[in-house]
Write a structure and sequence with these properties.
Length: about 425
Amino acid sequence: MRPIYLELLASDWREEPLGSLVVTKRGCSWSKEQERAHPAGCTIPVIRIPNVQNSLDLRDLLHLDGVTPEQRSASAVTKGWTLMVGSNGNPKRIGDSALVETDREMVFASFLFALRPRHEGGQISDEFLACWLRGHRVHEFISETSQMTTGLANLSWSACRRLPVRFPEREDEQARIANTLKAADDHIRALEEQIRKAERVKKALLQAFSCAMKHGPGKPLFQVADISSGFTMGRDLSGKATMAVAYLTVVNVLDGSLALTEVSQTDIKQSELEGLRLQAGDVLMTEGGDRDKLGRGCIWEGQLDPMVYQNHIFRIRPHDRQMQSWFLHYLLQAPSSKRYFFSVAKQTNNLCTINSRELRRFVIPTIPPENQDLWVRRMRSADALRDALRRQITAARRVKQSLLQNLLTGRIRLKP
């Protein structure tokens, strides 16, 4: 396990064990009968694990009825407390934390853990502590020291209480650091909201697109495009002339985009390459799996060459000059298309799959190329905006991590 600090203690900074600086609280438990979707009577809002995100998200609070005064007192959190994920099926979630910035009466769930600086010491501020807990190496330590019991990872306070906390002795320097990091968080939250708005615009466009495609005649997909499946993994290729080539799996094909950060290679027969090789403009669609993977599709733009694809992916290559690849790409994302795929899918347990026969029968609206152009331009503009915002937020998060590492160790000092 990596040390929390690689540098020497900065001048005018102190180092104390976490347990000596904070007081802690455990959350409350309740029965299903106590839950209310909305406040009523003597209910009280309860903060749960889903509310702990990059910041505390209080938009979807559950409300509890019948919470005793003793429970309220024991599990109450107000402005200044930091809530941390203490138990979860995913060990990497342990240590996720958020500062309570709203001064209202709330309790928190038993799978969360609460802590705040001791009032009598006055050594470290609420805001600085909350920032320190979000440092990468601190979170890594909390997550990796968690203990597994009955399928749940649980925070080990006996390990965490010994964590060395470094902090400036001057309150004004703590405040400058916390305010700088808060500004970075506010910028990220603003970008997240812009992304949500951009996604709502794209969703509305797809809905309008779906409605517009209901009118007029159509053709089955096989009349305007060639449809084929990729190669099967695990074949015996001994004695064959083979070659190593990059290939796509279902994991790479997202709904409207491709994930190419991890692309594997496999051996195929040399004679298969031209038949399996993807070309720019090929539309890819997954045959299914989990419900969210059914009919998931995107367009191949020639990012790597050669590139082939696995048999759980359909390659749709338009051969009709009146049918644009980008138009088909967006058509597969439309709500009406999703409904068709679900209606003809074979469903077993939680798995849904569509075969090539049903895909070939999928009806494509026959509309003039100029109308296809119009819809494609609208959709691509919406995608470009969303993608630009995603790049911005990725960069903003990198800056935030750099600030956490440099400001919370004293490597970079902020002047008054």
